[in-house]
Amino acid sequence: MPPRLPRFARAVPFDILMRIRPPRSHGGRVALALTVVYLAWGSSYLAVHVALESFPPLLLSGLRNVIAGIGLFFLATRRTFVWPTAAEIRNAGIVGTMLICFSSGMLAFGMRSVGTGTAAVMVATVPLFATIISAIAGRPIAKGEWVAVGLGLLGIFILNHGDTSNSSTSGTIVILGAALFWAVGAHLASQLALPADLFLSTALQIGLGGAISTLIALAGGERVGSLGFGSVFAFVYLMFVATMAAYVAYGFLIRHTSPIVASSCMYVNPIVAVALGAVTLGERVTGATYVSTGVILASVALSFWFDRRRAA
After folding, report:
1. How far does Cα 44 stand from its chain's mean position?
2. What is the DSSP string of 237-269?
3. Cα separation, 249 vs 271, whole angstroms
4. Concatenated DSSP letters for 72-109?
5. Which residues, 6 or more positions from 187, have their beta carbon under 8 angstroms from its beta carbon?
6. How remote is the C-alpha of 156 from its chain's centroid?
7. How far from the centroid of its chain's Cα atoms is residue 270's Cα?
8. Pfam families under this entry (predicted)?
């Protein structure tokens, strides 16, 4: 029998969430998952920008993920629940550390000096890092795929050259590091044994990763500043939409679609982020932004095309 939940976990919001039923067809579920990931993670850059007004970067990443992980764990216990093995918990902690502690934490840190649209474009290099990791792991890489990697790096150079902020160089390096750790975490998630239940697997990854991130942030002296309505609203949005909903949707895509489909969010997110940053924050969209965006998205699309040819 699943463990009995505390009273607050049996509150109405959880009951409402459990009564929500996804589309019955496979295509409908894939479309719903893609929509959630595109919109949630595309808008998360704006939400992080607003939340950073009150939350330090590593603590922001840690708190929202550890709370979301606890919430997803309680949802998992309402389903057909099977306790994970020690190896599965360890593996989930490793993957969560890469995705949450390192990747999300570094992204939030870098966005203190990099605009939302610029950050989203740089994160679009995740598939390119994944190509490099695959080569290191022993998969043969075609020459065209290396051309795609070169295009991506050229796009980053153009983007950074057109950024006039004082800390753009350091912010760019940090965000590129976040993209690299995301690619490493995604690779490990496909190689390590994780719980079969999607909710439980996601809960352990983001919960353990968030807990490690929170502990490091507190040990480093990070503390929450004065809370404003905007930053609190952004934090809640990040916790429920960009973490709980989006990570479950992304996990579904990883399990039930091709890597090309699942990774498509990495080049759709910049379009959403640039549009929201320009409309709501008045971020300047320069010619370098347009050129670098086109070059980076072309490089990602080229790498996906070669991956599709290899699969065929």
Report:
1. 9
2. HIIIIIIIIHHHHHHHHHHHS-HHHHHTHHHHH
3. 19
4. HHHHHHTSS--PPPHHHHHHHHHHHIIIIIIIIHHHHH
5. 130, 133, 134, 137
6. 19
7. 13
8. EamA
Instruction: Give the pair of three-digit tokens for residue 72.
Output: 């997803």
HSE-CB at 62 with a 13 A cutoff on CA atoms is 21
Cα 154–Cα 159–Cα 163 angle in degrees, nearest 5? 150
Tokens representing 192 are: 């390590």
Dist CA 77 CA 87 (whole Å): 20
Which pLDDT belongs to residue 226?
84
| Tokens of residue 88, six digits | 């599965």
Q: What φ, ψ does residue 141 adopt, rounded to 5°?
A: -115, 130
Alpha-carbon distance of 198 to 76, in angstroms, equals 8
Whole-angstrom distance, CA of residue 47 vs CA of residue 61: 12
Tokens 């057109």 belong to residue: 162
**Which residue reads 């020690």 in tokens?**
86
Q: Which amino acid is at 29?
A: R
Q: What is the CA radius of gyration of the chain?
A: 19
193 conformational bin, left if phi > 0, alpha if psi -120 to 50, beta if neither: beta
CA dihedral 85, 89, 95, 97 (to 10 degrees): -170
Closest CA to 102 of 189, 213, 214: 213
- Per-residue pLDDT tens over the stretch 196-227: 888 899 999 999 999 999 999 999 888 888 88
Q: Round to whole Å and give the CA distance between 244 and 102.
A: 18
Question: Tell me: the pLDDT tens digits for 15-24?
Answer: 544 455 666 6
